[in-house]
Every structure is written in C-alpha cells, then in structure tokens.
Design brief:
Helices cover about 35% and strands about 25% of the residues. By secondary structure, it is α/β, with parallel strands linked by helices. The structure holds 6-O-phosphono-alpha-D-glucopyranose (G6P).
C-alpha cells in the first residue's frame, strides 16, 4: 500500500523525507510526492509519476526545496490512475493543473488507506463550494478537514477529530496547516503509522525502517487517535480531543538489517538470510535447557482445543496450508485453513473449543485484521503469528508469537514465509506434546530435526548456480505448472506464487491427484512442469503423475530428497534437498523454488523487489 513519511526538526526536511520514502518504496511505487514548509512560508509541493527516483531527480535529491518541516508519500493507486494530478500530497484549495508548486491552501496532506464514503463527502463539499481536481478519495478527506477547520473556526485537533468520525474506511493521514508552521498533525484508523522522536526532531512513517537510522524510540499511534508533532515533541489525543499519555517502545533490530548488504536485490539477500532467521525463530521459542516450546497459548488452551482455524492471506495462507498437514498429522487436531478475505464475509458456524491462528508478516493486512476482529467478536481465542512487532494484529490478538525474520523489504516474501512455516511446526509439536500424543523422545527427535534445518537450507543456497543456469530456460516460458501431493502441494502453492508475482509468467499449483480432472489438457510439448516429491508414502503416486505429464511432452523439473534417484528416469532437471523429517520438507523444497523464481525474473529484466501492481503490506481491501 502507500507509504507516508513526515519530519519536523532542525535539518532540511526534503532530503530526510526522500530517504525515508526510499525505505518505504516497497509499499507503493506508482508515483510519489512531498510538501515542505520553510518557516511560515507556504508549503511547496512537488510530485512525480513512476518510481521515487523521478521525484529525487526533480528535486535534486531534495536540495531544491528549503524548509525544516514536511510530509511525503509514495503511492499505490486505488482511486484514480497513477498520474501526477492524483499523486499525493493533496490540498484543500481548488488547485488547478498538476498540483505542484507553492500552495495557498489551509491544509495539505498525504493518506494511506481508503476513504470509503469519499463520494458522499465530495458531494457535500462540492455543495459548499469546493472544487475537486483529482480522482482520489484522499482529496475529499483533506477538504473535509479544511471545511471543519474554517466553518467552525476550530483548532487543528478539533477539526481532525470531527473529520475522523465522518470518514469511513481506513486511514493513516498526515497533514500540515498553513497557520501552524513547523507542526504536523496525524490521525489513524486501521492503517499503520509510527512516530519517532529524537533530539529536537520528530519523524512519522508507515513503517519502522523509514526512521530507523534517526531513532529507535518509537510511539505506536492507536486506532482513532491523533497526534500533534513539533520538533522533538509529540502529543497524542483521543477522539474527544483529550490528551493521551504514551510511552515509547525501543526498536531492537538494526538499520543495516533493512539494507541490501551487497546483494543485488533485497529478495536475494532475504533468501540468504533464511538459515539465520530460522535459527533465531527456533531459539526464541524453545528453551535451550528444558526444551520447552513457548508458542503463545497456555497449556490448558492447547489441551482443550478441539479445532484449529488458520486465517491468512497470500504466502501466509500457504504457510497455513502446510501447517494444516503438519498439525493434523502430528497432533491429531482438525485444522481449517481460510483465506481471510473470504472468511471475513462468510457466515461461519463456530462451535466447540476453537483456537484461531492469524498468520501475517506485516501484522497489518486489512483482511487478516478484519478476520481477527470477527473471531474476537465471536469469542474465539486468537493467536497471532506475526513478524512486525507492535503491529495491529499482534496487539489485538489474545496472544502473539513473533517470527524473527527481521525487516523484510522485497515485496515477494521469502524469509518471513520460512519463519511462518517453522512456527506451524512448533505449534504442531507443542499441541502434540501437551495432548500426550508424542513422548519426550519423539519431541527431542523433532526438535533436533528443526535445529538442523538452518544448516540444510544453507547447503541448498550453495547450489544456487544450478538454479541460475536452469532459469535461463524459462525466460520465454508462457506457463509453468507446479504439482505435488500432501504437504508438497503446500510448497507448490508458494513456489508458484513466487514465480508469477515477480517473473509475470503464468503459473499454477495443483494437487497432483487432480491432474486428470482438467489440468492435464494443458500439458503439451515443451510445457514446463515442476514436480515436488518429498513424501515417502506418496512418492510412487507422484512418479506416476510425472510419467503422465512427461508422456504428453512436458519439460520436467523435480524437487525431491537425496536417495530418490529413480526420479531421473523422467525428470529433465532434478534438485535434491537434504533429508529431514517428512513433515519439515517444505522448508527445504521451497528454497530452490524461491531461487528459480528470483533468477527467472532477473533474466527477464523485471524489477524483482518491486513487482508491478503489488504491495508488500496490503492495508486496504
Ligand atoms: C501481500 C504480500 C505477500 C503476503 C501477503 C500477506 O500480498 O505481497 O507477500 O504474503 O500480502 O501479507 P501479510 O503481511 O499478512 O503476511
């Protein structure tokens, strides 16, 4: 989604804003803009379409704009196409043309989220003489603030609280008022926003990496709260306009962890970080002395749970699908896995003791958050498996298990997905243990396998050149099919998603047993099929499926474990992964699939870290 930044302090704001936006570009890259104020002079607005570098060029990396207070935005278009006119910041005045230059307006602002009743607000404001220049929902919000500010002669805080109750949907909104130089006002509902305060300077951003090089002391602004920012100071208010006291939270991860560190792309770097983040996540959950696993819910809850309900989106959903296989097999607890976007609008009969698990890297995905709220409304106990500390899902769930993936910048997730998978294994083991299904010896065996995973992933990464070589054969592929059975099917879902989201090659994952029910009609000479076959009890069945597609002309790649050499009778290219417990193979088989997607996208010249039309954190529906 969109990214927002803000700064008020002693230094020139424009360069600080652009640096912050660079760290948030993964959130949106259709267009970008900044507004900067020099003392009490009017705000100067500059916008550019396309990637952020266009805005940097246009402003001489910020040097062309004078002033120590400003706001910035990188856009992922929802309402209104990605043009300069629709780019943020937006202004309350009846601006003509593209909206750049000094602005006479009372209010200038940027917005992340969706103003759902913007049409109704626009009609009302038009009746009051406002003229709209853009196709965005944001412009209505900015003009509404101005309307209350002027009509009732309200101060900024009261104008904002009035607007907050009128705007439906979600927002992280950041504005400057002409009459209040050096001040920034922000308000929030269901869209992430953090505020950092350092010596004499104050920062706002949608996400921590944007301000990490300046301060580690961060305030989380809650839903339906607003804040007034001055240099080195922040004051929070509730919807009544009463001041709210808050304590800052200390961020522990390093600024370097959000840098590329010598890799060509964040995605490649993050793929390589998997051994470390797997070890970090494991060690955060398992006590080294007692081997006790702490994954969040207490033992009583785990013992009494009759059904697990996993809810998530995208790759997190795929981790949930893998979790379903592992938990049912190991702990004997029935598991339902639901797409959050579907679940939130369905009538779901919920009976018995259910533990719901909401998986989310960002902790801000709008559908997952809505699903969590629905679950809570139904009095279902909730566990959040989240990467971003202090995010909405983490704060609202009954308990939270933090994956230790660190900041993930590439839009296509790799390391966060791997830690989500690991969390599913840990949950399964803990459930099986407290329910008396596995004994101490089996548990120790499973933990030892998990301990060995990071090194096995590292070994797989050493073979990346083979995948790089093989990827050259995919450059002009039109379609790729992934197939597997059991938990291998879950790995296929994720492998296929990686391929399509960054290389733009159509790909599809299917359960190999479904082949005969339709998909086999698409297999023709040269069609690339990737089979994943790591499950001993399903190996022969999978071989039959490979033979079926091979005999219809498929060009076949296989991912299997060492020892299964008979696969070479059919496959044109084989990647062997080290042996592990059959339940944990997705953590290994996903690595070559990630690398294949990465190198294919690179070979096709695509923007790997920022694929078109996608955003890392989907904070709107
Ligand atoms: C977006 C990202 C995916 C991610 C999904 C869910 O689509 O591009 O990588 O899996 O959102 O995000 P979450 O933050 O909830 O895991």
């Amino acid at each position: 989604m969109c990214g927002i930044v803000g700064f008020t302090g002693r230094r020139q704001a424009a360069a600080v804003l652009l640096e912050g936006l660079k760290k948030l570009e993964y959130r949106g890259y259709d267009s970008a803009g900044i507004a900067v104020r020099n003392g009490s002079e009017l705000a100067e607005v500059v916008k550019a379409t396309g990637k952020l570098k266009n805005l940097c060029e246009k402003t001489d990396n910020g040097n062309a704009l004078k002033g120590t207070c400003g706001i910035g935005h990188t856009r992922w278009a929802t309402h209104g196409e990605p043009t300069k006119k629709n780019a943020h910041p937006h202004v309350s005045g009846n601006c003509v043309g593209s909206g750049s230059g000094p602005v006479e307006s009372n209010v200038v602002g940027v917005h992340n989220g969706i103003n759902e009743n913007y049409q109704e607000l626009k009609d009302k404001l038009t009746r009051h003489g406002y003229v709209f220049y853009s196709g965005t929902d944001t412009e209505a919000a900015i003009k509404l603030i101005d309307y209350y500010y002027r009509k009732y002669q309200l101060g900024p805080v009261d104008a904002l609280t009035r607007s907050m109750v009128r705007i439906r949907g979600s927002y992280a909104l950041e504005v400057m008022f002409k009459d209040y130089p050096g001040e920034i006002y922000v308000m929030r509902k269901d869209s992430p926003m953090i505020i950092g305060v350092a010596d004499g300077e104050t920062y706002v951003a949608s996400d921590v990496p944007a301000i990490l090089e300046h301060t580690r002391s961060v305030y989380y602004i809650d839903n339906m709260e607003l804040a007034r920012l001055l240099p080195g100071e922040v004051h929070f208010f509730d919807l009544n306009g009463d001041e709210v006291k808050k304590d800052p939270v200390e961020i522990t991860f390093s600024a370097e962890s959000a840098e590329k560190g010598g890799y060509e792309h964040f995605m490649l770097k993050e793929i390589h970080e998997q051994p470390r983040v797997l070890a970090d996540t494991l060690h955060s959950a398992v006590d080294p002395d007692t081997c006790r696993i702490d994954i969040g819910p207490d033992d009583g809850t785990l013992r009494n749970t009759e059904q697990l309900l996993i809810v998530a989106c995208g790759s997190a959903y795929h981790a949930g699908v893998a979790g379903q296989y592992v938990i049912e097999k190991l702990a004997g607890v029935p598991v339902r896995v639901e797409l959050a976007s579907e679940f939130r609008y369905r009538t779901v009969p919920v009976t018995g003791n259910i533990l719901a698990v909401v998986i989310s890297q960002s902790g801000e995905t709008a559908d997952s958050l809505a699903a969590l709220r629905k679950l809570k409304k139904n009095n279902i106990r909730t566990l959040a498996v989240v990467n971003v500390v202090g995010s909405s899902i983490a704060r609202e769930a009954d308990c939270v298990f933090y994956t230790k993936a660190g900041p993930e910048i590439a839009v296509a997730t790799t390391k966060a997905y791997s830690t989500q998978l690991l969390s599913m294994y840990l949950l399964a083991i803990r459930l099986a243990e407290v329910r008396g299904i596995i004994d101490g010896a089996r548990k120790a065996e499973l933990i030892a396998e998990l301990e060995a995973l990071p090194e096995k992933v590292a070994r797989l990464l050493e073979e990346k050149e083979r995948l790089q070589w093989f990827s050259t054969k995919l450059v002009s592929a039109l379609s790729i099919f992934y197939m597997g059975r059991g938990i291998d099917y879950a790995a296929c879902l994720e492998g296929s998603l990686k391929m399509k989201e960054i290389s733009y090659i159509h790909s599809e994952a299917y359960a190999a047993g479904e082949l005969k029910h339709g998909t086999i009609s698409l297999i023709e000479d040269g069609r690339l099929v990737i089979g994943v076959l790591t499950q001993p009890d399903l190996y022969e069945k999978m071989i039959s499926n490979l033979v079926e597609v091979k005999s219809r002309g498929a060009f076949l790649m296989a991912v299997t474990n060492y020892g299964n050499y008979s696969v070479e009778d059919n496959a044109d290219f084989v990647v062997y992964v080290p042996k592990t417990d059959p339940l944990f193979y997705p953590s290994l088989s996903i690595v070559p699939l990630q690398l294949l997607a990465y190198y294919t996208a690179v070979n096709r010249g695509e923007d790997v870290d920022k694929p078109r039309n996608l955003a890392k954190s989907v904070t709107v529906e």
